[in-house]
Structure formats: C-alpha cells, structure tokens
Amino acid sequence: MSTQPGAPLKRLTVHELRRMKERGEPIAVVTAYDATAARLVGEAGVDVVLVGDSLGMVVQGHDSTLPVTLEHMIYHSVMVRRGLARAGARAHLVGDMPFGSYQASPDEAVKAAMRLVAEGGVEAVKLEGGSDYVEVIRRVVRAGVPVMGHIGLTPQSVHKLGGYVVQGKDVERAQALLRDARALEAAGCYAVVLECIPTELARVISGQLAIPTIGIGAGPSCDGQVLVLNDLLGLDPTFSPRFAKRYVELGTESIGAVGRYVAEVKSRAFPAEAHVFHSAAVRLVPVAEESDVDGREDLPGVVGAPV
Ligand code: KIV
Question: ∠ CA(282), CA(288), CA(292), 5° rounding?
C-alpha cells in the first residue's frame, strides 16, 4: 500500500483499528524484524506490523523468547520503522515489551514502553498477561503509550505454563481467560492478542469485547489474525504448527536456490557475462613489458597501466 511521493502518510491509528472491528473488517497483522521484511509486508498491505519478541526464536535462534532484551527490541523496531517508511506503508507499528521489562513494577514498565516509542519508533507496545497486569497497563496507557494485551498461550510464561500448549480448554480456565480479557479492556488496552485458545472461547471473548481481538491459533471469530512472518513464508521447513498456514515454501525454495548457486560457483557457470564489468583501459601486460611500468615490479604480468 504505497502513497504518492511527497504525499503525507496517514498511518493507521488505534481508533481506526477499533472502527475496523465495528464495521466487521478483519485486521491483518504480521511480524517483521528488519527493514527488508518491513518493506515487503508494508507493500503487501498489512494493517499492523508487530516487532515480536518471537525474534528471539526466529532471528536469534534461541528456543524461547526469554533472552530478548529491551535493547534488542529497540534495535529491531528502528529497522522495521525505517523499512515501513521506505515502502510508504501506513501500517500501525507495535513493539513487544520483552521479558523482564515490565513485570517488576509499573514504573519500570512505563520507562521501557517510553523507550520503545521514543527510540524504537513504535506507536504502541504489546505485553503478555491478564488481570495481574492491570496496574502496569493503566500506568503505561496513562503515560500516553497505547497497549495491546496478550493472553492465552503467553510464551514469556512458558515455564509456568509447562510448555507451548493450548490454553483455556476447561470451563474454569476458559472463564479465567474471559475475565482476563475484560480486565485488559477495562485497564485501557486498545486490542488483545488471543494465542492458542479454543475457537469457541475466542468467539465468546471477541463478542464480549468492544476492542479488537487478534488471534493466533484462536480461530476465525477473532477480529484480526496475526502470524509470525517466518511461519507464513515457510522459512523453517521443519516447523509446521497447526495454527500457522504457509503461503509459500521459502525455506525449501531458498535451500534449492543456494544449492544451485554453490553448484554454479563450483562449475564456474557463475558469474556469467551478464554479471561482469569490463574496462578497455586495463590490459594484461607481458612480464618483460610490465617491468617498465612505474611501481609495477611487484606485480609481474598481472595488470598494466591504461593503454
Ligand atoms: O512475539 C510474537 O511474534 C507474538 C505473536 C506471535 C503474537 O507475540
């Protein structure tokens, strides 16, 4: 979604996202972690780009999101902001509050959220947790930073949850998640991610909240959907969770492409004539002639001065 050069860019706001819910228009959200990806997803017309702390797994190679720091989040947010600007995209940009940046106190949460906005260039932050985080959310919102909530499977609590497992499957836990969702809305969240919960529960929550719900593994009744870009592109051929649809097999395609490159380097098929530069002024000089050229004695027979 590009604009005319020079035209003022009207970014999608939290209010517009709310209006999308009201008129029943689904919200398309995807993650991005660098400028190239941001340009691509911006041009593809996504509504919201999330700089997710999933970067700990898909970019940094960790097996959880826990090692991601606030500095990492700011670093990647800056790149994504730049890529969206290059694409002239009007996507709304959200940055994840990493583990340890908001749990200890509302004061710390406010400071971290402000850094993500001021230094990272995001328009809103996302943080994981339910009713226990009401005070943190209130304070961050009061400081002027919109907050997207995140409940259900909250990866920063992977050790407490006992793994990456579907949440809210029994009545008691489903009711607790519904209470959490209501508490987040009351605390001032402008949207809430519902991760890996039964589709029936997501339908109830989405119907009861006025703010948009963004689902991942939560079924089609959510007001929007979010996918990790690497999953959508099939970048890891070995990772295929049930909730993530691959729209292309870029992982397999990439392995094939790089394999063809390696083969062509080995066979000298690459680079071909189309990939090289020429200079009529540079010629190979025979050794005898070359020794006459000033300062060339140390490079016998390699290259001559311009003819
Ligand atoms: O970190 C992330 O990418 C996320 C999405 C999966 C919602 O939190």
Answer: 70
- 104 exposed, middle or buried (CB, 10 Å; 0-12, 13-18, 19+)? exposed
Q: What are phi and psi of 113, to 5 degrees?
A: -65, -40
**In this predicted model, what pLDDT tens digit does every residue of 88-127 receive, in sequence order?**
999 999 999 999 999 999 999 999 999 999 999 999 999 9
Q: How far apart are CA 74 and CA 78, in angstroms?
A: 6
Query: pLDDT digit string (tens) for 132-141?
Result: 999 999 999 9
Which backbone phi and psi does 142 adopt, to 5 degrees?
A: -65, -30
Angle at 137 between CA 66 and CA 193, to 5 degrees: 60
Identify the domain containing residue 305 by its residue range.
278-307
Q: What's the pLDDT at 82?
A: 98
Helix axis angle for 106-118 and 134-142, nearest 10°, is 40
Could you tell me the distance, in angstroms and rounded to a whole number, from the CA of residue 128 to the centre of ligand 1? Answer: 10
Q: CA of 160: how far to CAs of 126, 153, 155, 157, 257, in Å?
A: 20, 11, 10, 5, 41
Quote the tokens at residue 181.
């969702």
**Domain total for the chain?**
2
Q: Residues with Cβ within 6 A of ligand 1?
A: 31, 50, 52-54, 96, 193, 216, 226, 228
Give the whole-angstrom CA distance, residue 24 versus residue 44.
21
Residue from 128, 185, 195, 290 carrying the catalytic annotation: 195
What are the tens digits of pLDDT across the range 241-257?
Answer: 999 999 999 999 999 99
User: Is the pLDDT at 307 greater than 60, yes or no?
Assistant: no
Asked whether residue 158 falls in the same domain as residue 301, the answer is no
* The domain boundary residue, chosen from 191, 223, 245: 245
235 within a domain of the structure (yes/no): yes
The answer to the question of residue 30 being in a domain is: yes
Place of tokens 């400071």: 111
| Smallest CA separation from ligand 1 atom 6, residue | 228
* Structural domain includes residue 6: no
